[in-house]
What does this fold into?
Amino acid sequence: MKMVFRWFGDDNDTVTLQQIKQIPGVEGIAWALHDEIAGDEWPMDKILDVKKKADQAGLHIHVVESVNIHEDIKLGLPTRDKYIENYKKTIAKLAQVGVKVICYNFMPIFDWLRTDLYREASDGSTALFYEKNRINNLDPFELVDQINANSDFTMPGWEPERLQHLTSLFNAYRGVTSEDLWDHAKYFLDEIIPFAAEHDIKMAIHPDDPPWPIFGLPRIITSQEHIRRFLDLHDSPYNGLTLCSGSLGANPDNDVIAMVHEFAERIPFAHIRNVRVFENGDFIETSHRTQDGTVNITGIVQAYHENDFTGYCRPDHGRHIWDEQCRPGYGLYDRALGIMYLWGLWDAYQQASSYQGKKV
Ligand code: CS2
Ligand code: MN
It folds into this structure.
């Protein structure tokens, strides 16, 4: 298991590369050019700038999260070919600087969705929270205004330039069904996966967060069955999965341990984090510890270990603790604690298997 840490760049993150380097066992960053608009070809000078900074800090840049997909590709519009060409050009450039994995998602309009960025727990910490009933009754425009008013950062998936076109985006999706989305995903994969394979870059689809349709928009990467279908759309080791335990864990019907076992060969990137799901369907992000949420993190790490997982892993989100002022979900402290929990579990399984004479 190779540990990485998400980094949003010099101007867009409170966490520094040096701090990241000081977390035990972290060898690289999961990064992106966050000011590039989905569909545009990434400029080489900006890619090299990130590489230079990471090199200086002693961290690698093997994992990109995310190269976002233009809505026209998800909508299956004729203009998609132009954006797919740009995507390929970006892949070719990333291959040149040693990138191995590209994480991306296929969610219409919105990326992750929460109703509250700073929900306070009884211990005074705050965390991302999702109130199911409120979403069911909420006008998406209101939510976009609230999210952007409450964050000092540009948040991936919530870029103001993109969301100012919200009305036309909603109109464009009118009548687009989940089966259409499957067709459009297949078209994308058939174009991109052979190209990525030639460049030895594994594409790693991130599940939908939360894993169910929102605001009448279809969502398809939501369950074990759907992930199987997605991986079968184009059967290649380069059509891979970012298995995010927190996104999928928001639906208690999802058995993430079973997914690790079934898809192990196709997981170049693991996101490991916990959530607590309540009876009414609300959920809050918690510490990584198994007992603190409803996702069995211990069992998940065990499953990765049993499958001799050699892919990249990151702690995904964290709470905001010890008065840290940071991007919502992306503070230093709780994610660093999460990493130490993951290493603790991993090393214990490693030790136990070596004791039993198994290969370590
Ligand atoms: C991430 C997602 O910050 C987050 O919630 O887990 O934004 C993730 O990076 C994307 O969905 C992957 O494309
Ligand atoms: Mn994730």
In short: The two ends are 12 Å apart (CA to CA). The chain has a mean pLDDT of 94. Residues 333-355 form the longest helix (23 residues).
